[in-house]
Design a protein that fits this description.
The protein is mainly alpha-helical and 220 residues long. 64% of the residues lie in helices and 5% in strands. Strand 2 and strand 3 (102-105) form a beta hairpin.
Length: 220
C-alpha cells in the first residue's frame, strides 16, 4: 500500500472502480454486441494469491498427480518465489491491470491517478476482456515466438488504448472526455505505437475491422 493511502482509501477507490465497471461495461457490450460476463474488481495485493490458487486447482489425472507430485510441488514453489520477488515491480507498473476476468487495482502509483483516471482505466481494462471474448482465448495464452510476443503486446495494448481514447470516447461524460483528450499515451510507448497501428488499420479497412483484430492480429 502506497504512502498516504489508508485501507479505507483503498476500499473507497475499489468501490469507485466497481461503479465504473457497472457504468461502462453495458455501453461496451451494446456498442460491440459482445457479452463480457462477470468482471470482478480486486486489490492488486490479491493477484498472486489468486494466480496460485488457480494453478493449484488445475485438474490432472490421478496417475499424473502420483507420478509428478514432487515436480508439481517444486514448480509451484518456484512460481511463488518468482511472484513474491517481482510483486513490487509489477504493482508499480500500472494503476490497474486485467487478468482472468478481474481488474486488479494497484495503489502503488499514488492517489492522484485514481482520482482522475478511473473511467478510462476501466474502459482500457474492459477492452482487454473484449479482446479475450473476440479471440476466444485468454490473454495469458501467448505465443512462444519472441517476435510474435512483441507484436501481440503491440496489438493488445494498442487495441485497448484505441478503445480508451477513440472508439469509446463518446461513452464518457463530457467532462471526462475533455480529460481523456488531453491525456494521450506517451509517444514512443507500446500503448501509443499500438494505438497508431490500430488507427491505421481502421482507416484502411473501416471500423468493423475492430471486431476482427483479436483473431487476425498476426496477419495485420
Amino acid at each position: 500500500m502506497s504512502a498516504g493511502l489508508s485501507e479505507a482509501d483503498n476500499q473507497y477507490f475499489l468501490g469507485l472502480y466497481r461503479c465504473a465497471v457497472s457504468e461502462y461495461q453495458p455501453k461496451i457490450e451494446k456498442r460491440t454486441g459482445v457479452a463480457l460476463g462477470d468482471i470482478a474488481v480486486r486489490d492488486f495485493r490479491e493477484i498472486d494469491n489468486d494466480f496460485m490458487r488457480d494453478m493449484e486447482r488445475q485438474r490432472s489425472s490421478w496417475l499424473a498427480r502420483l507420478l509428478w507430485r514432487s515436480t508439481i510441488k517444486s514448480r509451484l514453489k518456484q512460481w511463488r518465489e518468482h511472484l513474491s520477488s517481482t510483486h513490487a515491480e509489477r504493482a508499480s507498473a500500472c494503476m490497474a491491470c486485467y487478468v482472468r476476468d478481474t481488474i486488479y487495482v494497484s495503489f502503488t502509483p499514488g492517489l492522484w491517478n485514481h482520482e482522475f483516471g478511473i473511467a478510462f482505466a476501466v474502459v482500457h481494462e474492459l477492452s482487454h476482456a473484449l479482446w479475450e471474448r473476440l479471440a476466444g482465448e485468454p490473454l495469458t495464452r501467448r505465443t512462444a515466438v519472441a517476435s510474435d510476443c512483441e507484436k501481440f503486446e503491440l496489438f493488445v495494448e494498442g487495441f485497448a488504448t484505441y478503445a480508451e481514447f477513440i472508439w469509446f470516447l463518446d461513452a464518457y461524460p463530457r467532462s471526462v472526455q475533455r480529460t481523456v483528450e488531453q491525456a494521450l499515451p506517451t509517444p514512443g510507448s507500446v500503448h501509443y505505437r499500438g494505438m497508431k497501428r490500430i488507427e491505421q488499420i481502421v482507416q484502411q479497412n473501416g471500423q468493423h475491422v475492430l471486431l476482427e483484430i483479436p483473431k487476425r492480429w498476426r496477419e495485420l
